[in-house]
Design brief:
The complex is a heterodimer. By secondary structure, chain A is mainly β. Helices cover 0% and strands 53% of the residues of chain A. Chain A is built from no helices and 11 strands. In chain A, strands 2, 4, 5, 6, 9, 10 and 11 form a 7-stranded mixed beta sheet that branches. Chain A has a 4-stranded antiparallel beta sheet with strand order 1-3-8-7, with no helix packed on it. In chain A, strand 5 and strand 6 form a beta hairpin. The radius of gyration of chain A is 13 Å and the shape is globular. By secondary structure, chain B is mostly beta strands. The radius of gyration of chain B is 13 Å and the shape is globular. The termini of chain B are far apart. The mean pLDDT of chain B is 94. Classes of the chains: A mainly beta, B mainly beta. At the A-B interface, strand 5 of A face strand 5 of B.
Chain lengths: 111, 109
């Protein structure tokens, strides 16, 4: 079974803080993705990575950066958290460009 | 850019009845169409997918149909049950998945 884990289920941060969200997958998938999910807006792609040290912007990259130093780990970084970044963040991985396997999500609240 | 439209945003059906969710896509090169189910508080999970060389695919109570000419595809759930209550997402892919906005399916007892 594919296992995708995220570092926290719930996180509360203050405006201006630097926030790290980590995602780890154990299936040797080359592709990893970060999404945010907001009511009525579906899944919006923030960043994705097709290989170690490689990253591509998704639809809404502003205010975020990512890091992929190892194949199994993909980190999402909020350099200076803002209240409009309060959301559910979902990580996913895939082999090839097809089925994506999701982590449990991190619900981030920025006060 | 490419987009996927999904309708309806909310669907309420009586238990035992059928439910149909429809999606249209803009990129004619799309060749892979998955459907994901997200139960409340859980992660999205793939429930069925179809490739562009197939017009229909069934798996027990769920089926997906694809009309490449019209660029739309649909999810059909028959004999709905309470555990079918969830948000369903469609997506279309040429080289990257483009997601629909989701449909909240409510099964009324």
């Amino acid at each position: 079974d594919v296992k995708v884990t995220q570092s926290s289920r719930y996180l509360v941060k203050r405006t201006g803080e630097k926030v790290f969200l980590e995602c780890v997958q154990d299936m040797d998938h080359e592709n990893m993705f970060w999404y945010r999910q907001d009511p009525g807006l579906g899944l919006r792609l923030i960043y994705f990575s097709y290989d170690v040290k490689m990253k591509e912007k998704g639809d809404i990259p502003e205010g975020y950066s990512v890091s992929r130093e190892k194949k199994e780990r993909f980190s999402l970084i909020l350099e200076s958290a803002s209240t409009n970044q309060t959301s559910m963040y979902l990580c996913a991985s895939s082999s090839g460009l097809l089925t994506q396997y999701f982590g449990p999500g991190t619900r981030l609240t920025v006060l | 850019g490419e987009n996927v439209e999904q309708h309806p945003s909310t669907l309420s059906v009586q238990e035992g009845d059928s439910a149909v969710i429809k999606c249209t896509y803009s990129d004619s090169a799309s060749n892979y169409f998955p459907w994901y189910k997200q139960e409340l508080g859980k992660r999205p999970q793939l429930i069925i997918d179809i490739r562009s060389n197939v017009g229909e695919k069934k798996d027990q109570r769920i089926a997906v149909t694809l009309n490449k000419t019209a660029k739309h595809f649909s999810l059909h759930i028959t004999e709905t049950q309470p555990e079918d209550s969830a948000v369903y997402f469609c997506a279309a892919s040429n080289y990257q998945l483009i997601w629909g906005a989701g449909t909240k399916l409510i099964i009324k007892p």
